[in-house]
Amino acid sequence: MAWTSVTMASLSGQVAAYKAQRREDGSDDWRDVGMAMETTLTLSEQENDKRFAYRVVAVNKAGEGEASNSVLAVF
Fold it and tell me: InterPro entries per the record (predicted)?
């Protein structure tokens, strides 16, 4: 996965990490699948023949930001 960095409000501080999440297509249950310090993350051992939605959430000392738009992928 790769994404563009975000600028958080000055009161919130700089991004400390990014959390990647996924859910099965049609589900509302987002699950954490990885953390990254930069704007890339390699996910391995993803289930075959299933549709998953992925999104990224920026995290800093103030907590989590809003989730990115999700993208669908099939492996």
Answer: FN3_dom, FN3_sf, Ig-like_fold
Domain 17-74 fold: Immunoglobulin-like (2.60.40)
User: pLDDT digits over 34-70, tens only?
Assistant: 999 999 999 988 888 899 999 999 999 889 989 999 9
Its pTM stands at 0.86
Identify the sign of the CA torsion 45, 51, 17, 60.
negative
Name the residue ranges covered by the structural domains of the chain: 17-74
Rounded Cα gap, residues 60 and 69, in angstroms: 19
Half-sphere exposure of 16 (CA within 13 A, CB side): 9
